[in-house]
Amino acid sequence: MIEKNQIDIRLLEEKASSFHLISGEGVTGVDLELNIYFSYMDSKTSSKLDDQRALTDLLAWIKNNQNEMLETNHSYILFLSSYSWMFYVQLLKNTGHYIILGPIQELPGTEKTQHLIRLCSWLFQSNDTFSMPQPTTYAIPYESELPASPDVSLLQIYYEQEFIHFPLEKGMYLKAKMLAGDIKAIQDFFDSYKNIQSELVYDHIELAKGDLVRSTKNHFIALCAVASTIAMEAGTDDEYARTIADKYILQVENMHSRVEIIKLIREVFLKFTAIINEYSNPNYSALVKSTIQYMNTHFFEKITLNEVATKLEKNPSYISDKVNKETGQSFNANLNQIRIKESKQLLTQTQKSVHDIAIAVGFEYQNYFAKVFKKIVGVTPVQYRNKRSIGVEVPEASSMKSK
Questions:
Q1: If pLDDT is split at 50, 70 and 90, which confidence band does 186 have?
Q2: What is the pLDDT of residues 17-29, one digit of tens each?
Q3: HEC string for the chain
């Protein structure tokens, strides 16, 4: 016979597993005696000494303030450690457990932090009305003095040397075509650009003295920042855009040829242009762009048309009609497309169960997830995973329409 408390722990562990899978952040379950029942932590993160100290400090704080937390209506705190890590702690009064999210190296109030806390609140306190908690803050030390910042002379730039940076008009053209989602124009730009090596990666501006490959890598990193910023300006989720940039930067660090790096620059701008198209189709109205963007950043939550309408301060029927007309699909069909696209990544890049992935991408039931997946992709989630594992491409049975 399984006791109720055991069932609660299993359910919490299942949800924590899914949350860790979709967010990449650590999740720990602790009882009122501060015993850890389960912990999903990134191995690289959890091994750091500062993280261990921060978690120890957090548990000590909970121990000293537990009675106050139990007596009040506040069921959550934000904990900022002196090691610049943040934890989100949620007390589940009905089960007698704490859920600890973190450590997160982010400041409270940022979009990422709010996004993670909203998701955590939905998973573990779905019946509660959620509001942003007030943080309990520990002092964060600062360095005493910063080194002197470099300066330049405008007179020297304009009268004693030639212009050496990427021409402004070409940069503005590139940005305009990216914002328009014009992939063909970006392709043509790079394919026909004769001076790309000398102008785009600045042969004459060394960012690593005596090491041209390192200098080119440093210029590449700067260009990644430019491309991701343009994507964020166009409405792409900022964490998504920056993570893509990070992955390219990690990729370029393993390269040893300037030719390879220059080729990768082309791919970066094409990738971010494609992302802009996905997140903010230039042919959509501002309302539909906002609706699609909200879906892309909240698809793992229990979102509804009425909720989105409330957020955007529009009539649900009006949003529904606009989405149908401009995308060719209903609100729910668009949402399912986004969820299934994310689930395909998880099926091929992780070994997590279909059930965990279904929860992680926002489906409450595995059977319904499998039904929607097969309708869109043409095969079941398990069949898709098996086919992709042996390198077989699986064409979509249906796909999002874009004008």
A1: confident
A2: 877 876 778 888 8
A3: CCCHHHHHHHHHHHHHHHHHHHHCCCEEEEECCCCEEEEECCHHHHCCHHHHHHHHHHHHHHHHHHHHHHHCCCCEEEEECCCCCEEEEEEECCCCEEEEEEEECCCCCCHHHHHHHHHHHHHHCCCCCCCCCCEEECCCCCCCCCCCCCCCCHHHHHHCCCCCCCCHHHHHHHHHHHHCCCHHHHHHHHHHCCCHHHHHCCCCCCCCCCCHHHHHHHHHHHHHHHHHHHHHHCCCCHHHHHHHHHHHHHHHHCCCCHHHHHHHHHHHHHHHHHHHHHHCCCCCCHHHHHHHHHHHHHCCCCCCHHHHHHHHCCCHHHHHHHHHHHHCCCHHHHHHHHHHHHHHHHHHHCCCCHHHHHHHCCCCCHHHHHHHHHHHHCCCHHHHHHHHHCCCCCCCCCCCCCC
CA-CA distance, 23 to 293, in Å (whole number)?
18
pLDDT score recorded for residue 93: 67
Give percent above pLDDT 90 in the chain: 13
- Whether 352 and 346 have beta carbons less than 8 Å apart is answered as yes
pLDDT of the residue at 322:
93
Higher-pLDDT residue of 212 and 328 is 328
Residues 6+ apart with CB under 8 A from 238: 111, 112, 232
Q: Would you say residue 190 has pLDDT above 50?
A: yes
Give the predicted TM-score (pTM) of the model. Answer: 0.47
Residue 287 and residue 294: Cα distance in Å, rounded?
A: 11
Q: Where do we find the tokens 């992302």? A: 275
Residue carrying the six token digits 């990644």 = 224
Q: Give the count of beta carbons closer than 10 Å to the beta carbon of residue 290.
A: 18
